[in-house]
Amino acid sequence: MQSTEKLKRYFSEIKDENIVVYCGSGVTASVTLLALENLGVEAKLYPGGWSDWSSYEDNEVATGK
After folding, report:
1. Entry pTM
2. Ordered DSSP codes for 1-65
3. CB 3.0-4.6 Å disulfide test: which of 4, 41, 49, 57 passes with 36?
4. pLDDT at position 35
């Protein structure tokens, strides 16, 4: 885990009050969640991550096209 000062700088541009962190399966994102909580930033974890989200046909997916 990085120092508190470094984490404050890294996350300094976060303005949204509804923060959800995710990754491929939810494991890596839990470290981000811990870092945010240590800074007093409330966030939620989407535990299934991309693996879960992409498994539902009705969920929207941006493709960059």
Report:
1. 0.75
2. ---HHHHHHHTTT---SSEEE--SSSHHHHHHHHHHHHTT--EEE-TTHHHHHTT-TTS------
3. 41
4. 94
